[in-house]
Write a structure and sequence with these properties.
This protein is mostly helical and 314 residues long. 66% of the residues lie in helices and 0% in strands.
Length: 314
C-alpha cells in the first residue's frame, strides 16, 4: 500500500529580535555622513543644472521684473527694452552660475533636507521627532513668507530709492549689482522671519520662559525695528516697516505660544510632582492648620443634620 508522501512543515528562520539599545560605531556614523553628503551634493548639482537652464526661460525675467516695472524715466536704456548691463567678459557666465546655484539650492532643498533629517532622526526620541518635523515645516513656511514679502515690496523700495536722485538722473543698473541686491533682500527677509521661531524653540527646551518674554515685550519690539533698519539692504523706511511690522506680529504670536507651553508644563509638573519621590521620603505636603471658619452656623442647619430622637432610639 503506497501512501501519499508526508510533507513536513517548513521551518522559517526567525530573525533575531531588534536591539533597541543598539548603537553605531564612530566609523559607521562617519560613513553614513559621507554618503548623505554625497547624495545631497548630487541633488544640489542636478538642481544647479536645472537652474542654469531655467535662467533664460523665465528666472531672469522674474528677478528683473521689479526693475523693469519702474517708470521709463528712471531707466536709461537707449531703447524700449529693459535690459541689465554686464561690464566684463566673464561677468555674464559667473552671474548665470551664481543664480543657477542659488536656484538649484532652492529646487533641491526637499532632497538635501531629507538627507539631513535621515541622518539626525535615529538619535531622536519620538516626541523630539514630532517637534523637529513641526519646526522644519514652520521654518520653511516662514522663510518662504519672508521671501515673498520681500519680492512684493521690492518695487516700492526701488521706486523710492531711485526717485530720490531727482528727475534729471536715470539709472542703468549692472546685472551683478542688481541681482545680488535682490537675492540679498530675499535672504534677509527670509532669515529675519525665523527669529520668532527661535524664541519658541528656546521656550520649548526650557531656556526662555513666557514671563521673561512678556516682561521684555517692549524691548523686543523696539530691537526688532532697529534690527530691520540695519538689515534691509534698501535702507528705506517703506522696506524697513515691511520687515519690522510682520516680525512684531510674529514675536507676539511667539509670546502667546510660550504662554500656552508654560501652562501645559506647569500642569504636567503638578501631576508628576510626587512621582520622583522614594518610598521612605516624606511627601512635601502642607502641614499647617487650615483656616478657621469664623462665621456662625445657623441653628436650622444643625437641626437638619441631627437625626430625630425616634430615629436615634431605633
Amino acid at each position: 500500500m503506497s501512501g501519499s508522501p508526508v510533507r513536513l512543515p517548513r521551518l522559517r528562520r526567525r530573525r533575531p529580535p531588534r536591539d533597541t539599545e543598539a548603537t553605531m560605531t564612530l566609523v559607521a556614523h562617519l560613513t553614513e555622513l559621507r554618503n548623505r553628503i554625497a547624495k545631497a551634493l548630487l541633488a544640489l548639482g542636478l538642481g544647479t543644472i536645472a537652474g542654469f537652464l531655467w535662467y533664460d526661460h523665465g528666472l531672469l525675467t522674474f528677478l528683473s521684473e521689479p526693475y523693469c516695472s519702474l517708470p521709463a524715466e528712471l531707466r536709461f536704456q537707449g531703447d524700449d527694452n529693459c535690459r541689465l548691463v554686464v561690464l566684463d567678459v566673464f561677468g555674464g557666465v559667473l552671474l548665470r552660475l551664481k543664480i543657477g546655484l542659488i536656484a538649484g539650492a532652492v529646487l533641491s532643498s526637499p532632497f538635501w533636507l531629507w538627507q539631513l533629517w535621515a541622518f539626525i532622526t535615529p538619535g531622536l526620541k519620538r516626541n523630539e521627532k514630532r517637534y523637529a518635523v513641526t519646526f522644519v515645516a514652520a521654518s520653511t513656511s516662514l522663510f518662504a513668507l519672508g521671501a515673498v514679502l520681500a519680492y512684493v515690496t521690492l518695487y516700492k523700495g526701488l521706486e523710492l530709492l531711485l526717485g530720490l536722485a531727482g528727475d534729471e538722473v536715470a539709472f542703468q543698473l549692472t546685472a551683478p549689482d542688481y541681482l545680488g541686491f535682490v537675492i540679498s533682500l530675499l535672504i534677509a527677509f527670509g532669515l529675519s522671519f525665523e527669529l520668532p521661531l527661535i524664541a519658541v524653540a528656546l521656550n520649548l527646551v526650557g531656556v526662555l520662559s513666557h514671563a521673561a518674554l512678556s516682561k521684555s515685550r517692549r524691548w523686543i519690539f523696539f530691537l526688532t525695528i532697529v534690527f530691520a533698519a540695519f538689515v534691509t539692504p534698501t535702507q528705506d523706511p517703506f522696506t524697513m516697516l515691511a520687515m519690522a511690522l510682520p516680525m512684531v506680529v510674529l514675536f507676539e504670536l511667539a509670546i502667546q505660544v510660550a504662554r500656552v507651553v508654560d501652562r501645559r508644563r506647569a500642569k504636567r509638573d503638578a501631576l508628576e510632582h510626587f512621582h520622583g519621590l522614594s518610598d521612605d521620603e516624606a511627601s512635601p505636603l502642607d502641614a499647617g492648620p487650615s483656616a478657621v471658619d469664623t462665621a456662625p452656623t445657623p441653628p436650622g442647619a444643625l437641626l437638619a443634620e441631627d437625626p430625630a430622637p425616634a430615629d436615634r432610639a431605633r
